[in-house]
């Protein structure tokens, strides 16, 4: 095993895993909330929220990265306060890579969870209410268990997307080996160096394996949610 | 405990305006589809918020728009049995039954094992709702509602999706509920035989308005109401007591208008039954008929006559009960009936079908 990867390659894979896990876990509560709002509520500006959530999917990643730099850079209009009040600096740090990955993966996560919400019959929630369950309990005991496979599917997709995030990450946090050099950044770096192709190729295989596994798992879980709601 | 409902609500192209009292027992909300039955029951449940209204259950005010009181459904303490059972697919039968228990006050209300026994659910407890038949789902839904310790039970055509045979199996459970629990039941139905069998109080809705409300036996025997209830199904309910099981397979019952015989009913002598006789299955005669194949001839007094475009409806007083007969206008003229006249009602024995016969205990209402 140790011979398969050089320490540099290992660092890139390990950093990508760490960034993706954090990005997924931190954005999950907000993802569930936004998915619920989009699936169940009607309010003025719903289409605007929907557009904002999906924007990172459409925008060139370099634009998203640049916008993150403007907002969360050390002099950015949010970043300067994070630095002043919490001593939290995101730009050119691995924590910034987490933010970039989370933003880029958010649309996929929300989409999967939203579909799960929409598949739950509101009549079941109504029935739970008449049995004495407050709205919070209805959510925890009926809605959440029914959409759980959808949540896991959304998280898996978001994780895979975070593993592959390149454009926004390299724009926002650059490509510093050991600090912000994620798997795709490392592949890019190896490809810039003469004779780096074999190293790049091994990491390419890792990328393909992660993406493929995530897609299969996500598909499997989507079917589970459909089965669960049909009750078979 | 009794329920008082007054509400008005404006839907696009439809206005709901009802006002009625539901005393203890089973109150049936009867009307054609689109008459507003489900809207009324949803307003009682708190699922529909009416424009204006006041709903009280004993001393608890569930809704009062004038005082801006509107208890959310989960604080109204009701059990709602929906048309489409609405069992939770991720929970098994036992967990579905126990669901309302999590939120009900501890150590109160019906005992789990009693309800399971009463509804015959013990074999189903570990099954998933998806594997249940329609009738089983309905029974679980009723059990789940009862076990949430409700102060009021709402049932919205709980058996509408079932065939007649399944329905006949389940109606006795509702009768047991009506007679052996103190929970008032609000029951939505558009099937008159079902209503006649179950209801102690009847509320007739028509196009969002409350046409009539009152004791079921009175309303069912009211000739002026029969056209709204549906002439084909119209019929009165009588009280009868089983007197004997005859060796030829017939059961003899005593009514205030004389004895009647019905195809065997599994009930011991002394059991009080409620029998329904459809108005169109009654033939009238001024003198006691002789040499007829019909066994059941009741003696009574003409109490009301109502001529209509579809014939005449004659109400006959039999003691404190009433019978309704539907005859042609020509027959009514030929018989020259007037209120106060003694009359014999020949009831074709097929009229009192077994599924329309309901038990009713003493002192329920």
Description:
The complex is a heterodimer of chains A (232) and B (365). In chain A, helix 5 packs antiparallel against helix 8. Chain A contains ten helices and no strands. Chain A is mostly helical and 232 residues long. Helix content of chain A is 79%, strand content 0%. The radius of gyration of chain A is 20 Å and the shape is globular. In chain B, strands 7-8-9-3-10-11 form a six-stranded mixed β-sheet, sandwiched between helices. In chain B, strands 2-1-4-5-6 form a five-stranded antiparallel β-sheet, with helices on one face. Chain B has a five-stranded antiparallel β-sheet with strand order 14-13-12-15-21. The longest helix of chain B has 17 residues. In chain B, 43% of the residues are buried. Chain B is built from nine helices and 21 strands. By secondary structure, chain B is an alpha+beta fold. Chains A and B meet through helix 6, helix 7 and helix 10 of A and strand 7 of B.
Average pLDDT, all residues of chain A = 89
Shape of chain B, please?
Answer: globular
Cα(first) to Cα(last) distance of chain A is 43 Å
Query: Structural class from helices and strands of chain B?
Result: alpha+beta
Q: Low-confidence parts of chain B lasting 5 or more residues at pLDDT below 50?
A: 349-365
Number of strands of chain A: 0
Measured by DSSP, the beta-strand proportion of chain B falls in 35-45%
Shape designation of chain A = globular
- Tell me roughly what share of residues is in helical segments of chain A: over 70%
Widest beta sheet: strand line-up of chain B: 7-8-9-3-10-11
Distance between the termini of chain B: 11 Å
Quaternary state reads heterodimer
SSE series of chain A = HHHHHHHHHH
* Major interchain interface with per-chain residue totals: A-B, 24 and 30 residues
> Using only CA atoms, what is the Rg of chain A?
20 Å
* Main β sheet profile of chain A: none
């Amino acid at each position: 095993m140790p011979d398969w990867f050089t320490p540099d390659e290992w660092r890139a894979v390990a950093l990508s895993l760490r960034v993706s896990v954090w990005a997924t876990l931190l954005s999950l509560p907000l993802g569930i909330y936004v998915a619920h709002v989009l699936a169940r509520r009607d309010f003025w500006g719903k289409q605007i929220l929907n557009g904002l959530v999906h924007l990172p999917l459409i925008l060139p990643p370099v634009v998203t990265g640049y916008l993150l730099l403007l907002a969360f850079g050390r002099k950015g209009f949010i970043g300067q306060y994070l630095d002043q009040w919490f001593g939290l600096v995101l730009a050119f740090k691995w924590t910034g890579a987490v933010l970039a990955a989370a933003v880029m993966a958010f649309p996929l996560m929300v989409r999967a969870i939203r579909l799960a919400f929409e598949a739950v019959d509101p009549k079941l929630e109504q029935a739970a209410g008449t049995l004495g369950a407050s709205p919070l309990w209805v959510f925890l005991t009926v809605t959440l268990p029914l959409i759980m496979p959808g949540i896991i599917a959304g998280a898996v997709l978001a994780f895979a997307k975070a593993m592959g995030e390149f454009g926004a990450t390299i724009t926002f946090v650059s490509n510093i080996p050991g600090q912000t050099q994620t798997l795709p950044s490392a592949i890019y770096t190896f490809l810039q160096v003469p004779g780096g192709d074999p190293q790049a190729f091994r990491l390419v295989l890792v990328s393909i394996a992660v993406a493929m596994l995530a897609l299969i798992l996500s598909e499997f879980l989507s079917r589970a949610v459909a089965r669960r709601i049909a009750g078979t | 405990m009794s329920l008082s409902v007054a509400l008005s609500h404006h839907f696009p192209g439809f206005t709901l305006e009802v006002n009625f009292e539901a005393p203890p027992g089973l109150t049936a909300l009867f009307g054609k589809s689109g008459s507003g039955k489900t809207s009324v029951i949803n307003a009682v449940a708190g699922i529909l918020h009416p424009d204006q209204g006041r709903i009280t259950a004993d001393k608890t005010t569930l809704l009062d728009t004038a005082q801006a009181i509107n208890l959310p459904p989960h604080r109204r303490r009701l059990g709602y049995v929906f048309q489409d059972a609405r069992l939770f697919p991720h929970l098994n039968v036992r967990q579905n039954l126990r669901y309302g228990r999590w939120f009900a006050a501890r150590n109160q209300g019906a005992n789990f094992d009693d309800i399971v026994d009463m509804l015959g659910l013990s074999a189903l407890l570990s099954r998933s709702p998806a594997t249940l038949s329609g009738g089983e789902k309905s029974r679980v839904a009723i059990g789940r509602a009862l076990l949430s310790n409700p102060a009021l039970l709402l049932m919205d055509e709980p058996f509408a999706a079932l065939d007649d045979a399944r329905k006949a199996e389940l109606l006795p459970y509702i009768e047991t509920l009506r007679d052996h629990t103190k929970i008032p039941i609000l029951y939505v139905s558009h099937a008159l035989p079902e209503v006649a069998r179950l209801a102690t109080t009847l509320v007739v809705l028509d196009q969002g308005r409350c046409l009539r409300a009152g004791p079921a036996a009175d309303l069912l025997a009211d000739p002026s109401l029969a056209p709204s209830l549906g002439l084909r199904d119209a019929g009165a309910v009588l009280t009868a007591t089983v007197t004997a099981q005859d060796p030829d397979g017939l059961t003899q019952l005593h009514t205030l208008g004389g004895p009647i015989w019905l195809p065997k009913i599994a009930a011991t002598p002394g059991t009080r039954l409620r029998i329904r006789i459809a108005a169109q299955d009654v033939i009238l005669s001024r003198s006691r008929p002789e040499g007829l194949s019909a066994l059941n001839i009741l003696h009574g007094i003409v109490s009301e006559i109502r001529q209509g475009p579809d014939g005449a409806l004659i109400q006959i007083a039999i003691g404190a009960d009433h019978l309704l007969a539907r005859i042609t206008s020509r027959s009514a003229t030929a018989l020259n009936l007037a209120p106060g006249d003694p009359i014999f009602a020949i009831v074709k024995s097929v009229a009192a079908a077994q599924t329309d016969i309901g038990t009713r205990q003493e002192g329920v209402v």
